Amino acid sequence: MEMKELLQQGIAEAMAKAIHSGVLPEGTYPDISLEVPPQKEFGDFASNIAMQSARVAHKAPRAIAQAIVDEMKYPWLEKAEIAGAGFINFFLNNTVLYDSLQQILAAGPQYGKAPLRPEDTVQVEYVSANPTGPLHVGHGRGAAYGSALVNLLCAAGYNVQAEYYINDAGNQMNNLAASVNARYLELLGKESQIPENGYHGTDIIDTAQAIIDQDGDAYLAMPEQERLEFFKDRAYVEKMNILKKDLAHFNVQYDTWFSERTLHPDAIHAACDVLEKRGKIYEKEGALWLKSTEYGDDKDRVVIRDNGVPTYLAADIAYHKNKYDRGFKKLINIWGADHHGYVARVKAAIAALGYDPDQLEVLLLQMVSLFREGKPVKMSKRTGQAITLNELIEEVGTDAARYFFIMRSLDTQLDFDLDLAKSHSSENPVYYIQYAHARIYSIYAQAAEAGIKLDTDWSHVVWNTLQEEEELEIIKKMAAFPNIIKQAARDRAPHRIAHFVYELASLFHQFYNHCRIIQENKELAEARLALITAVRITIANSLAILGVSAPEKM
């Protein structure tokens, strides 16, 4: 059992004993919360349960605290002290730390992970960029955060499915075809102009040139509409292949790629039929409108235009109906901050369909600003266009890009320092963490040279040789990892794993500078090798959640 849970259980048992003996009255007591005190002299954990229980027990908090402390007789508890108005400070026995250390070593790559709960189904949909051009850095933040959230939820025991919604229907695909057609004609010396809502990136020129390289001017003789349809399909396949390749290169994988095309027309009509039967849709001026104001939206929304063409909202209604029909307990969408106003209308549509809108959770992704030499960077030197995710990866690497994207909460704007991300110094957090992991492997090599065998069962280790403050603080930090995962998953906060592993790496570097590992005292050397192995395991498991590599050499 994780230390925090062990202590919470111990407090609950002590309160139950105090109630049974009549020292505390029967009643519905609050949940037991624990915090790590800001100063070490106040113990390993502190609780305000006595103060929170005053109204239930009709006693002074200090009297309640004394009743709890009197019943807490456990071999793993060194002592419990009452402080201030009724806080209880708990000091754990080192034996519980050594037990935690052995649990980490025994669990290895599974340390921190909760057992799979198949019934706790969660779908996470993220990125879902139009397949009309390369991913930019904003997509990169969503990709890093979304995939880290999927990894985090999996580690916490949720049954997770990652999904990409391909916006492959509608005007953007027609504009893609028209843009490729314009570049195709232009490259063949024909007069042409990209449409007003077309795509001007160099990737469109590349697509048109690839068509010419393969088939020459064969499509000039084709009727324009037929040529546009061909170019639409050709460009779509090419863009999707590039998009999937780029995401895989960024350590992002999906379980499902859902095509919007599959919703047209049947699924959209079926969703509209449900809304009509429920009286949630009406006709006005030849169009069909959703009564979204009944569910808190600021105005009703058009679902089917007067020309019979569905709106984007219609497709989203059908798509979310499909999600709910697949039976997930929780749906998480990660959208750009510019979609803030869209949340209410989608939730209104979900409620109008008869589903629980609270099952859908929308996380809004704030913007990324790139900086080089302290100055904002907006355009690519290569293309003059917005900087793509691939260009960012080329400059700083996948690991640094992912860590920097994840290390800030999703709802805060991110200033990405390109120079810092590339630096090989302790100022660069991802380098600092990876260096800790690689340094442990270098210590293994030193141990081998010194004739110290690195065992894997650790049964012979004399654990109580680990008495230094730096050693005990590292163990306490690692012991909190399962609970950090649980809470971070609950709060959809993978950035907490980034902070945790940075803090663990910092504790390790402090330990390394203070405590000699390879030494004549064999028992202490073996115990410290076991300790750093647990550190290596915990760092690697943390970085795996973030989608960042744990190198053996730097």
TrEMBL record:
GO aspect biological process, one term: arginyl-tRNA aminoacylation
UniProt keyword terms in alphabetical order: Aminoacyl-tRNA synthetase, ATP-binding, Cytoplasm, Ligase, Nucleotide-binding, Protein biosynthesis
Keyword Cytoplasm: yes
Annotated compartments: Cytoplasm
Reactions accelerated catalytically: tRNA(Arg) + L-arginine + ATP = L-arginyl-tRNA(Arg) + AMP + diphosphate
All residue ranges annotated as the Arginyl tRNA synthetase N-terminal domain in the record: 1-92
GO molecular function, one term: arginine-tRNA ligase activity
UniProt EC number: 6.1.1.19
Residue ranges of the motif 'HIGH' region: 129-139
Annotated DALR anticodon binding domain residues: 433-554
GO CC list: cytoplasm
Domain of life per record: Bacteria
The protein's enzyme class: ligase
Classification via NCBIfam families: argS (TIGR00456)
Complex and partners: Monomer.
Family named by the database record: Belongs to the class-I aminoacyl-tRNA synthetase family.
PANTHER family: ARGININE--TRNA LIGASE, CYTOPLASMIC, ARGINYL-TRNA SYNTHETASE
Name of the protein in question: Arginine--tRNA ligase
Organism: Megasphaera paucivorans
Organism lineage: Bacteria, Bacillati, Bacillota, Negativicutes, Veillonellales
